[in-house]
Write a structure and sequence with these properties.
Blueprint lengths: L19 E2 H15 L3 E5 L15 H5 L4 E3 L4 H13 L3 E8 H4 L3 H8 L2 H4 L9 E6 L14 H4 L6 E3 L4 H6 L1 H6 L4 E6 L6 E2 L14 E4 L4 E5 L4 H13 L4 E5 L2 E3 L3 H11 L2 E8 L4 H13 L8 E5 L8 H7 L3 H12 L21
Parallel strand pairs: 2-3, 2-4, 4-5, 5-7, 6-7, 10-11, 10-13, 13-14
Antiparallel strand pairs: 1-8, 6-12, 9-11
């Protein structure tokens, strides 16, 4: 798999530019962490001389040297394990796994070591490691490189799971993640790397405990995270033009989930649509739906709607890939159902269908 990128030296917003990108915000967060604490180092496949498969670590090798920007062999189990060992020894490693599917090769290290050592040692062995990885589809990388498995990791006690969706979160979530005594997994949606905007404002401590209301509303809550946030915001705009006020909640932290912010939103709007790029069965969307039913049953005026990816291996063909992913029109149709308005013509395609037989 190859990804082209352009070298840009310096800070998150290169000199003379008034905008920055999600990729550059991540890079500046790494640069700041490396400068602030000599215990911090970056390790992973192609993070050094190549600058990272997605260009996040460009020029960091030249600035910090090979002891702190370490190219690792193609063995996720080995270098994640080395990162865990370094964390146990007092270092603050940032381990980059190229794409989320490759993290499965290190699942034993993440699940059976990083997530459990603090508990199994009676609090004696914290593992302050940060593991970054690219997630999500929409870039024609076919079934093996288009997974959204963050919901799997949100299932595991002992981990903190983050999903920065904005430039500000990309820029400022790393510092509190490195300060956390628990292992922290950061999922960066590949479709966000080129998203640009004004550089984030003066640094403030990033909140990695709470969800954020990105757009207030009164009629329906659109609950999402990561790469689906722009789609939810676009859907809210479309709904607004039709007189439906949609509130958009960005989960930001997938474990632990911020039940309070989500619940407060639903108690206000009385309707919920959960947008999740993961597969519907056993998904993070299913967990949120269950919690809303358990905690806010009498606040709900309609069943919780879910908009998820089709339950197929992600197609390579662009038209099929886009059809398999959550779409703005599907979110709009779900919100209209929740508020009791008829869906637009053709929107019934967004409604989930029963899956029978072998694929079920």
């Amino acid at each position: 798999m190859t990804t082209t990128h352009t070298r840009t030296a310096g800070s998150g917003a290169p000199s003379g530019r008034t905008t920055t990108t999600y990729r550059e915000a991540l890079r500046e967060a790494l640069r700041e962490a490396l400068r602030a604490d000599e215990r911090v180092f970056l390790m992973g496949e192609d993070v050094g001389r190549y600058g990272g498969c997605f260009g996040v670590s460009l020029d960091l090798l030249e600035e910090f040297g090979p002891d702190r920007i370490r190219d690792a062999p193609l063995s996720e189990s080995a270098f994640v394990g080395a990162g865990i060992g370094a964390a146990l020894a007092g270092m603050r490693p940032v381990v980059e796994i190229m794409t989320v599917n490759f993290s499965l090769l290190a699942l034993d290290q993440i699940l059976n070591n990083a997530a459990t050592l603090l508990h199994m040692s009676g609090g004696q062995l914290p593992v302050p490691i940060v593991i970054r990885m690219t997630t999500g589809a929409g870039r024609q990388l076919a079934a093996q490189h288009s997974h959204s498995l963050e919901g799997w990791y949100a299932h595991i006690p002992g981990l903190r799971v983050l999903a920065p969706a904005t430039l500000a979160d990309a820029r400022y979530m790393l510092a509190p993640a490195l300060a956390d005594p628990d292992p922290v997994l950061i999922f960066e949606h590949g479709g966000l790397y080129n998203v640009s905007g004004e550089p984030p404002a003066a640094p403030e401590p990033a909140d990695i405990d709470h969800a954020a209301v990105r757009r207030p509303g009164t009629d329906v809550s659109l609950i999402t995270y990561g790469g689906s946030l722009p789609k939810a915001l676009d859907a809210a705009d479309e709904l607004g033009s039709g007189g439906i006020s949609a509130e958009v909640v960005d989960l930001r932290t997938l474990r632990p989930l911020d039940d309070a912010t989500v619940g407060t939103s639903v108690a206000r709007t009385h309707r919920a649509v959960v947008v999740d790029e993961g597969w519907r069965t056993g998904s993070l969307a299913a967990e949120i739906s269950a919690r809303l039913t358990e905690q806010h049953f009498y606040d709900l005026d309609a069943p919780v709607e879910r908009v998820c990816s089709a339950e197929v291996p992600m197609p390579y063909a662009r038209a099929l890939e886009q059809a398999a992913l959550p779409r703005v029109d599907a979110i709009v149709a779900a919100a209209r159902r929740a508020v009791g308005e008829p869906a637009a013509a053709g929107a019934d395609a967004a409604r989930p269908r029963a899956v029978l037989g072998r694929s079920g």
